[in-house]
Amino acid sequence: MPVAPVVAQSLPEIKSAGYALPLRPRFANGQVITLFVPGLNPPSASCADSINASTLPLPTNLGGITVTAVEISRTGGFSGDLPIFGITNVLCFGGVYAEAPNLTAVTVQMPVVQFCPPEGGPNPCWYVPIVTVTVKKGGIPVASSQMVAVGISPHVLNSCDSSVSPFLTDDVRISQLLASCYPIVAHASGAIVTGQNPAHLGETLSIYATGLGSPRDLIGKPTPESGLPVDASAIRLGFDFNSVIDPPPSQIPIIEATPVYAGLTGGLVGTFQINVVLPTTAPVNARTCGGFGGTNMGINLGFLGFNGVIAVRLCVNF
Q1: Hey, which residues does 140 pair with through a beta bridge?
Q2: Rounded CA gap, 230 and 307, in Å?
Q3: Which residue ranges form the domains of the chain, and what is each CATH number?
Q4: What is the pLDDT confidence band of residue 95, given thresholds at 50, 70 and 90?
Q5: What is the spatial distance between Cα 131 and Cα 95, in angstroms, rounded to a whole number?
Q6: Per-residue confidence band for 27, with pLDDT thresholds at 50, 70 and 90
Q7: DSSP one-letter string for 19-71
């Protein structure tokens, strides 16, 4: 009598390693983020089969894929489908070293949720919004995750992100930038700052970021061409002329300043522009471009309400 083969059961997955609890993914209102999803049969790694939204407002169904968000921590919270920027294979933007290279990258704009609802309580801001995000294919759920809304979750766009296509023109191909993940920092002309096209002392540069919040009525829609300013004084800048990566840090002081402008970028969805003016002079012992990544200066960004500093490294000629 034939014996049915025994199918080995897969073990539960280890969710994290380190010295702290594995936290739920976090997002800011209106943040543009990428979900890395198994089981969607991703487009080919040639990237030619990637699916990108071609209309504005952004669609909530792209190639039969939908992403639904439901606020589960209170009744009457957000529930709906999210705008989708694009769907691509994780290998198309530096995923060769990913844990699972068969993942599909689905870039969406997160919803706007309420932080201090009228239910009240001893502390008017006691409430922490938790949202279940579910990716569906043909209406059938494929994967889901619970995510927590936070006040801000700043992220400076870089060339390895899946949402930088508006910035990478024909003369700056993503294949040229992937190895170092250059930050998306632009000259006034719109050209990206690189080691071959460096910044200069006294120049005004634009740093592009997401995760700083967004009005509810602009979700999935482009910001008006005039832009939408925010309080630039809530952002602090530090210009470090001796980047801590290479060589070791010296005693060169960090020059502090504030941006000359910050706000949602006109014509783009959920993308912030932070305009900074570089110092007009460099310390006498500042070094020229070279070393790690070809950079010689760091712009350290500090945001009110965010516990940490984001470092943007670039090449400056002087």
Answers
A1: 137
A2: 19
A3: 26-150 (2.60.40), 155-317 (no CATH)
A4: low
A5: 27
A6: very high
A7: SS--PPPEEETT-EEEEEESSS-PPPTTSTT-EE--SSSPPS-BTTEEEEEEE
C-alpha 70/C-alpha 73 separation (Å) is: 9
Distance CA 210, CA 65 (A): 23
pLDDT given at position 316 = 92
Q: What was the pLDDT predicted at 23?
A: 85
Side chain identity at residue 259, one-letter code: P
- Vertex 122, ends 119 and 124: CA angle to 5°? 55
Half-sphere exposure of 68 (CA within 13 A, CB side): 15
Q: Is 2 exposed, middle or buried (0-12, 13-18, 19+ CB in 10 A)?
A: exposed
Question: How big is the chain by its Cα radius of gyration, in Å?
Answer: 22
Q: Pick from 251, 254, 212: which is nearest to 232 by CA?
A: 212
Give the whole-angstrom CA distance, residue 209 versus residue 86. Answer: 18
Strands 261-264 and 272-277: antiparallel
DSSP3 helix / strand / coil % (the chain, rounded to 5): 5, 35, 60
Beta-carbon count within 10 A of 202 CB = 11
Asked if residue 15 lies in contact with residue 24, where contact means CB atoms within 8 angstroms, the answer is no
Q: What's the pLDDT tens digit per position in 196-206?
A: 889 999 999 99
- Characterise 211 by phi-psi region: left (phi > 0), alpha (psi -120 to 50), beta (else): left
> Is 298's pLDDT higher than 70?
yes
Q: What is the pTM of this model?
A: 0.85
Q: Residue 261: beta bridge partners?
A: 275
Check pLDDT > 80 for residue 306: yes
Q: Does the N-terminal peptide bond of residue 247 adopt cis geometry, omega within 30 degrees of 0?
A: yes
Give the rounded percent of residues in the chain with a pLDDT score beyond 70: 77
| Cβ atoms of 208 and 269 closer than 8 Å | no
The residue whose two tokens read 């740093």 is 207
Retrieve residue 244's tokens: 């801590």
Question: Is the distance from CB of 86 to CB of 101 less than 8 angstroms?
Answer: no
